[in-house]
Amino acid sequence: MSAEKRKVAYIDGKPYEIGPNHTSILKFVKSYLGEKKVPTLCDDPNLAPYGACRVCSVEVALEKDGPTKVVASCHTPVGENQHIFTSNDGLQNLRKNIVELVLTDHPMNCDTCEVDKNCELQTVANDLGISDHRYNNPKQHKGTPKDTSHSYMRMNLDNCINCGRCVRACDEIQGSFVLTMSGRGFESRITTDNDMLFGDSSCVSCGACAHTCPTDAISDVFQSKSVKVDKKVRTTCSYCGVGCNLETSVKDGKVVAIDTPKETEVNAGHTCIKGRYAFGFYDHPDRLRSPLIKRNGKFEEVSWDDAYEYIKQKLEKIKNESGPDAIAGISSARCTNEENYVFQKMIRAAIGTNNIDCCARICHSPTAWGMQQTFGTGAATNSTEDIYHADLFLIIGANPTNAHPVTGAKIKQQVMKGKKLIVLDPITTDIAKLADYHIRLRPGTNVAVLNMMLYYIVKGNLLNKDFVENRTEGFDEFLNHINGLDIDHLASVAGVDKQLVKEAAIAYATAKNSMEFHGLGVTEHEQGSKTVMLIADLAMITGNIGRRGVGVNPLRGQNNVQGAADMGCQPHQGAGYFPVADKKIQDFYTEKYGAVHPTKAGLKIPEIFDAAINKEVKGLWIIGEDIVQTDPNSAHVIKAMESLDLLVVQEIFMSETAKLADVVLPGTTFLEKDGTFTNTERRVQRVNKAAEPLPGTKPDGVIVTEMMQKLGYDQPTYDADQVLAEVADVVPFFKGITRERLGKLGLQWPVKEDGTDTKILHEKEFKLGKGRLKSFDWKESTEIKNNIKEYPLILTTSRVLQHYNAATMTRRTKNLNIVDEDILLVNPIDAKERELNNGDIARLYSGRGEVSLKVEVTDKVKEGIVFTTFHFPEHMVNMVTGDGKDEETKCAEYKVSAVQVQKISNKFKTEISPSEKQAEIVRN
Ligand SMILES: Nc1nc2c(c(=O)[nH]1)N[C@H]1C(S)=C(S)[C@@H](COP(=O)(O)OP(=O)(O)OC[C@H]3O[C@@H](n4cnc5c(=O)[nH]c(N)nc54)[C@H](O)[C@@H]3O)O[C@H]1N2
Ligand SMILES: Nc1nc2c(c(=O)[nH]1)N[C@H]1C(S)=C(S)[C@@H](COP(=O)(O)OP(=O)(O)OC[C@H]3O[C@@H](n4cnc5c(=O)[nH]c(N)nc54)[C@H](O)[C@@H]3O)O[C@H]1N2
Ligand SMILES: [Mo]
Predict the structure, then answer these.
(1) How far apart are CA 713 and CA 707, in angstroms?
(2) pLDDT-wise least confident of 11-25, 138-152, 358-372, 600-614
């Protein structure tokens, strides 16, 4: 027990202990006496205290019976022995008068303003007993035209009370600075940047303004605050690995709106355009609604039983003729833990092969593998909330404001508050614009630049000697390697300024807490795993590991890619990362699964494709992964799919891959299922069904389980909770997880039997005992070496905020109104050489294939580099990307392709607009 005396303050005469989160009188009072004890108007717990409206006024005396003073409780700190009075006639009159003045700006009669009495302002007014307008404002906003230009929000400034919450949310939460307050006094009103229509402004559609607005002056197109819904269901977002908590509004059995729930840890009351608005795909007319079998080149609707029977016969034939290793499965990082677990179990226990993989292979497999080699655990060492405890951020090959927008916005906020930022990225991303040190390296040269940073830290004597001595091994060899580096050569191949790298290295080593984040710009390279291990070196030699605000933190991509690998959807490791080549491990799984565990090593995704072409793999079952559009070298993937005897695709849409299937099975979206997802910080969170599966569809776990039963395996009827219990029995770091214990906010693994979870890994020792320092030399990518003469530009590919991977989902939402094609970014020098102007159509080609794309000429990319995204099937950018792979894990080298660009036509010559083209595709 701490001997420290507990500090108290008094609320209406009673003592209460002051806690660490009680940063204001308002927070202190609310935490003990509930939300309604003190009314508020301009306050939002997710925003910095503002103290403008003073509705939250309380009286405070510094000692018992001392003189009192009226203060705004939201921005007055609570102090020891304060005597706080929350209510008396004087305070009530003050509050009432303020709200009456505010109402001057606002229609009183709710019938005329489309908003019922649920809006926050009306609730506060009702609570204060106000029922009528006392003051009349001659210059009311009345008659301001509604702004309906935005795809997802509308602005009705007649309802605005100028509380400034939207402006503050845009600035403080999203960091976008789109909304401002213009004019003074009664003339003041909310406008967008350059006074544009809302829909034309630079708004990123995060919805933070609509979420905070107390009156529906800015609201979602669906008026979630005012229309009565039947129920609200809390769940977890199914886009990226941030894992935002969402609250769905359900009316007449349909999800009609999504907002953030009150209590959130991961997303702190925030979401992005996809999580909040891009859910319209879920009941889109294009959803698959029946099992399909392809006969004579055409899909025919069949019953579930016929589909299962057809698959069973085909699988048994393949197994009898060629053995179980002629069958493979690719699981979905979009599906739940429970679904991934049963699928790998089906492949291993019911079919009998280790040929099971998932999209982690082409995404962060180098992270998992590299961190297993150096630390022992291949997952993020720290928690997202550590962003608040870091002093410096090192972001390597990640574009978090696009790809992990809620985390990106948090980092951005901290940097705007003065924390230091180093970015290693060839592209001037949004976050790179804020960097103190933006190291614009050539794609494929991370190992060179990281070696430079390690060198400058060692030479500058900036090592954390204690950490190196007590917690690592391999330092002597590491030092030898550093001493042999040719820094000038490394700087020249990477195309970077030595001095800048030196300064960045010193900043990283000398900040109190340096927190590293990385993405695909690290992993999707030939030297991906090596880069990850050098990042681990950087953290270890500077002691930036094992406490708050530091660590090595991959920004994992898919909502449940961490979980898919945890559940064993990898050929070399089963559920819980046990190596399946080990005889003891095989016995362990054999006992757990009640079926002999396969002993032969499984194939990784690219090996599955090669084996299909060689007729060694004949049957493939894919759940929720559109490999034809998203794996590299699409022509090769298509050839592999066409070589199979049986392709089963379990999907929600007729994806490019599903089109090639023999059998299509209609799964359900996350809104129609129960289970759990594991986010990028190892947090296992509940997914709760908000709507019933569309008629004709089944949750993916149900489909897999029914198939297991059909194959004769004794798997009980699918129940997500019961599968989770089985996972907890097999996977040691899930030991203490139950659905109940996960509660609202989830738990971060490892979770002990008693339910305690883990926010920070490696605090006292690494899973390997000591951390392993590793050394590697930079090597030019084979793709460049072999092809750069003929194809002199380097293509690097990535994503936009509005669309998600194959975009089967986001293209079926209004996000398509905002972005409707992949654009090729070309540096002005390269553009001039090719006579390319903005808007021209260019041919982008490599030895593998070609696509045509609209051009944007910009110095966001360096000379010699071109950049695009891979979201649109009418472009199929992966026709161009190559077969390069990470040496260790076979992760695809999407970030380096040798290409050439050639002008096809001027902008005016295109006959069909991308959106028309898109519409055509959707229609077909
Ligand atoms: N809006 C949106 N969000 C998404 C997705 C989406 O499609 N859309 N996809 C999700 C998925 S699956 C994933 S994995 C994540 C990916 O998210 P990120 O990891 O951020 O991935 P990318 O944006 O593809 O690439 C990151 C950066 O790497 C840079 N880069 C390229 N080559 C190099 C290099 O050699 N060195 C360095 N240091 N940087 C380099 C690129 O310029 C790019 O800015 O996003 C997830 N979130
Ligand atoms: N050029 C280039 N290509 C890339 C990348 C790159 O940076 N550059 N990045 C790569 C990366 S990191 C990744 S992770 C991959 C992602 O590639 P994919 O995994 O192919 O991409 P998604 O669009 O996430 O595809 C998931 C599929 O699952 C379906 N789906 C969604 N939810 C469910 C569900 O609940 N059940 C079922 N059955 N299906 C569902 C969707 O309709 C979609 O077709 O793309 C890779 N491709
Ligand atoms: Mo990914």
Answers:
(1) 9
(2) 138-152
Q: How far is it, in rounded angstroms, from Cα 467 to Cα 261?
A: 41
> Who has greater pLDDT, 861 or 913?
861
Q: What is the pLDDT of residues 182-217, one digit of tens each?
A: 887 767 889 998 788 999 999 999 999 999 999 888
Model confidence pLDDT, tens digit, residues 411-429? 999 999 999 999 999 999 9
Residue 631: count of CB within 10 angstroms of its CB: 25
d(CA 801, ligand 1 centre) in Å: 11
Q: DSSP class of residue 147?
A: B
Report the residue among 239, 358, 399 best suited for mutation to probe ligand 1: largest number of ligand atoms under 8 A from its CB: 399
Pocket test for ligand 1, best of 363, 442, 560, 799 (most atoms within 8 A of CB): 799
What's the CA gap between 588 and 502, in Å, rounded?
A: 50
Q: Whose CA is nearest to atom 3 of ligand 2?
A: 630
CB atoms within 10 A of CB 489: 11
What atom of ligand 1 comes closest to residue 446's alpha carbon? 36
Domains observed in the chain: 3-87 (3.10.20.30), 111-283 (3.30.70.20), 292-360+560-748 (3.40.50.740), 365-554 (3.40.228.10), 782-923 (2.40.40.20)
Region of 901 on the Ramachandran plot (φ > 0 left; ψ -120 to 50 alpha; else beta): beta
Left (φ > 0), alpha (ψ -120 to 50) or beta: where does 252 sit? left
Task: Tell me how far apart the alpha carbons of residues 546 and 556 are, in angstroms, rounded to a whole number.
Answer: 20
Q: Is the pLDDT of residue 83 over 90?
A: yes
Residue with tokens 């110095």: 859
- pLDDT of 644 higher than 90: yes
Q: How confident is the model at residue 141 (pLDDT cuts 50, 70, 90)?
A: low
Q: Which residues pair with 651 in a beta bridge?
A: 666
